[in-house]
């Protein structure tokens, strides 16, 4: 039996940081991980965080859900047939309902080969405190991801005061009294907490509050920068003009005077720039509501 963990959490909460750290811990115990990574966009940026020697299946455009169950089954079946691994981690897109994603993993094809340990949800603590600013549909999904967790990480606690940290834990525990809650920064969680999770039973679908992607107008947009010329300051000025319904951006942005496009990440008003030592394609994925209408710097 191979253990399976489903990593859930809203866009930009810190799932990929948790994934890379859990992989490190598994390797230290001489366990071989495999990963199925689901992304909402058409470009697999998060998968670049997974080392080359780890079996990886990518599913783009948010298809680990009920409508994509057949694709999920095919990817798992392929891993079971072709790859040598001990633990399977499935990282869903931030726009996926965790229970629907978990339900897609249950299949008579491999029921005797997989031991589904549970849902690990990463919750952005600051976003929890500001959840009333989200649109009703998006807030519903954010809350559902937290409500169905078996292990809940209150992440980014370094951005909060001690009083705010206590408030977050108290409110999360009241909202999901069944989950073990751990305060984290950078999504770091001891592997033993995952290993302590009990196997989950088949989920009753009637318990799901539906929040499908379509009803949120949530989507992604892939932007390619060609022959553009702007400074980091000009780009950040543009970022500040974006509506609150842009939740996440990630990609490689060409900056004046810098040799290679820089790795750029954005989540809920906070930006991060990192130098890139390999020339990556100058492309940016924007995730949010009605992103097709945005005016993008250097493009329109």
From TrEMBL:
Keyword Transferase: no
Gene3D superfamilies from the UniProt entry: CobW-like, C-terminal domain (3.30.1220.10), P-loop containing nucleotide triphosphate hydrolases (3.40.50.300)
Pfam families referenced in this protein's UniProt entry, alphabetically: cobW, CobW_C
CobW/HypB/UreG nucleotide-binding domain span: 4-181
UniProt entry tagged with the keyword Hydrolase: yes
Residue span, CobW C-terminal domain: 227-293
UniProt catalytic activity: GTP + H2O = GDP + phosphate + H(+)
Keywords for this protein: Chaperone, Hydrolase, Nucleotide-binding
InterPro entries (UniProt xref): CobW-likC_sf, CobW-like_C, CobW/HypB/UreG_nucleotide-bd, P-loop_NTPase, Zinc-reg_GTPase_activator
Similarity comment: Belongs to the SIMIBI class G3E GTPase family. ZNG1 subfamily.
UniProt protein name: CobW family GTP-binding protein
Species of the source: Lysinibacillus zambalensis
């Amino acid at each position: 039996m191979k253990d399976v963990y489903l990593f859930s959490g809203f866009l930009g909460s810190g799932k990929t940081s948790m994934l890379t750290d859990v992989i490190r811990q598994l390797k230290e115990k001489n366990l071989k991980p495999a990963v199925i990574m689901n992304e909402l966009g058409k470009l697999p940026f998060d998968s670049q965080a997974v080392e080359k020697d780890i079996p990886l299946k990518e599913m783009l455009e948010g298809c680990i859900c009920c409508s994509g169950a057949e694709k999920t089954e095919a990817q798992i079946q392929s891993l079971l047939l072709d790859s040598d691994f001990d633990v399977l981690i499935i990282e869903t897109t931030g726009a996926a309902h965790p229970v629907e994603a978990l339900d897609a993993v249950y299949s008579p094809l491999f029921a005797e080969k997989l031991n589904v340990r549970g849902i690990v949800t990463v919750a952005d603590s600051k976003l929890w405190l500001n959840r009333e600013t989200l649109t009703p549909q998006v807030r519903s999904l954010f809350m559902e991801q937290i409500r169905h967790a078996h292990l809940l990480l209150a992440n980014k606690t370094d951005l909060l005061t001690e009083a705010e940290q206590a408030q977050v834990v108290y409110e999360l525990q009241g909202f999901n009294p069944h989950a073990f809650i751990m305060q984290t920064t950078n999504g770091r969680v001891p592997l033993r907490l995952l290993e302590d999770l009990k196997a989950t039973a088949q989920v009753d679908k009637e318990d799901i509050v539906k929040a499908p992607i379509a009803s949120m107008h949530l989507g992604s947009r892939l932007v390619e920068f060609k022959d553009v010329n702007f400074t980091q300051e000009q780009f950040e000025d543009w970022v500040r003009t974006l509506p609150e319904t842009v939740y996440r951006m990630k990609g490689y942005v060409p900056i004046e005077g810098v040799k290679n496009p820089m790795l750029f990440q954005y989540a809920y008003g906070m930006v991060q720039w990192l130098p890139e030592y390999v020339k990556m394609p100058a492309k940016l994925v924007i995730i949010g509501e009605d992103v097709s209408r945005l005016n993008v710097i250097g493009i329109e």
